[in-house]
Amino acid sequence: MWLPFIGLIIGIILGLLTEIRIPEEYSNYLSIAVLAAFDTLFGGIRAYLQNIYDEKVFVSGFFFNIMLAASLAFLGVHLGVDLYLAAVFAFGVRLFQNIAVIRRIILTKWSTNKEKVEKN
Amino acid sequence: MDNQKLNASFTLIAVLVGFMIAIQFQTIKEPAERDTRDIWQLREALLKEKELQSNLLSEIRSNEEKLAAYESKRKQSKEQTLIDTLKELKIEAGLTEINVPGITLHIEPVIEEIKPGTPVNKVVSPELLKRLLNELNMYEAKYVAIDGQRVINTTVIRDINGVTKIDGHTINSLPIEIIVGVDGNNTAEKLYNRMKVSKSSEEFFIENLKLSVSRPNPNVTVPAYDNSIRIRYMEPEKEGGDS
């Protein structure tokens, strides 16, 4: 269970150590890709907790969402409309929903566990 | 069972996300360094830049000076002197076209003397031309061209089988034009006045030819000598010879 967190930390350390910097004008794309990745990650966690987890959906969703978000931002830049805001909004809303669902599931699990302990 | 596989993919994605976050963080963090210098520090920086600018300017100036020095050195060099001398000598020898003040003389048959049935005099005798040339030279003519043929020091005017030739150029039709160049406008004027009263025109008239002199022109073009000059009795002195 703790392996994903360790992976996250390893990824951050790796990123900080490599000192890679992308050009200023592309940071928009990366930020939106990060948002999409977060959304997918939390979606995966929620699906796992709800027992409807499908690895294919998870992995493909991760890459597809990132690419979609980046291409939306790209299109927005070229059309002169801040289309990436749409992606930010969509991902933001989904992120909050996912986190809320995860919180509720964990809360229910916790309370049922407590009841079980009290019964025993 | 499936848990391991799930963990693996989750971990992989987590690593990727972490990597992206780190890069984004670094990229965003970079320009966050705000300029917090106060006015004195800014002035100091400005002073430094100004110093740099003045240094660059002085460098440019010194380079330009160097360039000018090289230029003048080149001008004063032996090579340039030789080139200048060569040019002067070429002008003097008559190998270049030249634009100077001067006058133009025309030699044409006398119309009143043309009688029906008799051949028109079409030949200028070399003696006449020689006399004319000598007279012109006496009056400080420097550059002379007869019928487009430049007269130089080695030019010969002679009669070959009844045809007047100037250095191989045949004069067989009239009128002909003689362009005379001199060194200054005053000289041109003087030459013009002298030619107007010269004996040459009378001598030409005896041979049924009319010599007319045009007004001095501030800019006549004397053509270049177009044959090669053959030097038969001159040799370059060998350097370091035993003479």
Automatic annotation (TrEMBL), chain A:
One GO cellular component term noted in the UniProt record for this chain: plasma membrane
Superkingdom classification of source: Bacteria
A Pfam family the protein falls into: DUF1290
Topology versus the membrane: Multi-pass membrane protein
Cited InterPro entries: DUF1290
Statement: the UniProt record of this protein carries the keyword Transmembrane: yes
Residue ranges of coiled coil: none
Keyword Cell membrane: yes
Protein localization: Cell membrane
Transmembrane segments: 28-45, 57-77, 83-106
Keyword vocabulary terms for this entry: Cell membrane, Membrane, Transmembrane, Transmembrane helix
Family membership: Belongs to the sbp family.
Name assigned to this protein: Small basic family protein
Organism: Priestia megaterium (Bacillus megaterium)
Classification lineage: Bacteria, Bacillati, Bacillota, Bacilli, Bacillales
